[in-house]
Amino acid sequence: MSEPDPRSTEARYRRIWRVVAAIPEGQVASYGQVAQLAGIARGARQVGRALAKAPEDMQLPWFRVISANGRIALAPDSPGFRRQRRQLLAEGILVRDGRVDMRRFGWAPASDEILLRF
DNA sequence: CGTGTGACTGACC
DNA sequence: AGGTCAGCCACAC
Description:
The protein is mostly helical.
């Protein structure tokens, strides 16, 4: 019996989904932060990929993931952008011009919280 | 196997 | 504050 390679794309996606699922309601995390917590250095782009690939019935809070600069990464004129903005606003996260104040809404998990969860 | 393309980032103007 | 750029990495062609 061989363990699945933790470096495989599938294994990485599963860890990414696990981290995203742990982002508290009312808070946001950046793609790079999610990658970091999932043990994937410099894997920000993979996070975007994993979110796009996440099964709908997984009900992943993908909308809580935004760019490190606080901006919604999707195209401002896209349906995805509008949906993300709406869902963020729905849980009290202020979105102004497609931007969120990371200092106010950014997720800052405590170290023990990280060790226990991931 | 080379190239182009992003739901990305950090560094530098 | 806002644009450019190189680095990044999985994927489509």
